[in-house]
Amino acid sequence: MASTRITLNSAGMRDLLQSAGVRAPVREAAEKVAGRARAGATVESGAYRDGITVVSDTTDRAVERVTATAPHAAIVEARTGNLKRALGR
């Protein structure tokens, strides 16, 4: 019985995972999460809600991060779990 051997092209996989074709749907998903997070944010001054953004990055692949930039964002997240809930929805 013949065996099959598969060898991945590491550079090719890296290029694929960093490509615009992969980044676009990842960005789209991150924007949806950010929208849900903004919609579910508690609002006193609006700084937390308005500071929820999507940040693009590249590691060995395309990465999109949903972040909250308000100085008190960590406190809001610890109390409400808003970003975590937005990701789960």
Provide an overview of this structure.
The longest helix is centred in the middle third of the chain and has 21 residues, at 20-40. Strands 1-2 form a two-stranded antiparallel sheet. 13% of the residues are buried. The protein contains 5 helices and 2 strands. With 89 residues, it is an alpha+beta fold. Helix 2 (20-40) crosses helix 5. Helices cover 54% and strands 16% of the residues. It has one domain. Strand 1 (52-58) and strand 2 (62-68) form a beta hairpin.
Sheet of most strands = 2 strands, antiparallel
Compute the number of helices: 5
Shape call = elongated
The number of distinct structural domains comes to 1
* Alpha-carbon distance between the two ends: 48 Å
Q: Strand content of the residues, in percent?
A: 15-25%
- The structural class is alpha+beta
Descriptors:
two-stranded antiparallel ribbon, 16% strand, alpha+beta, 89 residues
Describe the structure in brief:
The protein has 89 residues and is an alpha+beta fold. It is built from five helices and two strands; from the N terminus they run H-H-H-E-E-H-H.
